[in-house]
Amino acid sequence: MPEFEGFILAGGASSRMGKNKAHLKLGGKTFIERAALSLSAIEPRRIFLVGNFTNENKVIEILPDVFKSDSRASIIGLHTALFHAETEWIAVLACDLPFASGALFKILTGFVQEEFEAIVALQKDERAQPLCALYRKTCLPKAEAALASNEWSLKKLLEKLETRFVRFEEISDLPNAENFFFNVNTLEDFALAEQIEHTL
After folding, report:
1. Rounded to an integer, what distance in angstroms lies between the CA atom of residue 187 and that of residue 109?
2. Residue 57: what pLDDT?
3. What is the pTM of this model?
4. Is pLDDT at 15 greater than 70 in this prediction?
5. How many CB atoms lie within 10 A of CB 160?
6. Integer Cα distance of 144 and 83 in angstroms
């Protein structure tokens, strides 16, 4: 297995939540801590937190966005991760996917092959999850080109990459797979996430 670096993407404005959701606690751990634990399963060389944070985080090194924009588009965080990467491959995880597990990332690493530039999980409805994925460092020029042309869509970026989409059927036997891609954006989502956590 190639060497990885891990990047927790937490640069969104959290406008629908009304507070910085990266610091919400679920199961006794913040969303940042949960993401770091999941990424640790593939033994990355280092783990970083990507986003415009201040020094409130004392454990994980913070990488501010390289591309400066008023937009909070996720591609900016991915670009920052690729820009700073020192390994051939990186693993990225959005902090608001609190149930994406280490077991899932171990499965994703099994699909790394020379011909691919990205390994991206699919939800049950076949929607791609580009913020729960692996990317090769060589994706950086294409991400830079997208930003230069004001193209913010990660979906469109994936269309320009040699992407291996991992179907839900390929990961569905993992524990809690049905909740891997539960996205927490609102207080209502967080309340539901707490209910899910209590069932695990």
Report:
1. 33
2. 54
3. 0.93
4. no
5. 15
6. 9
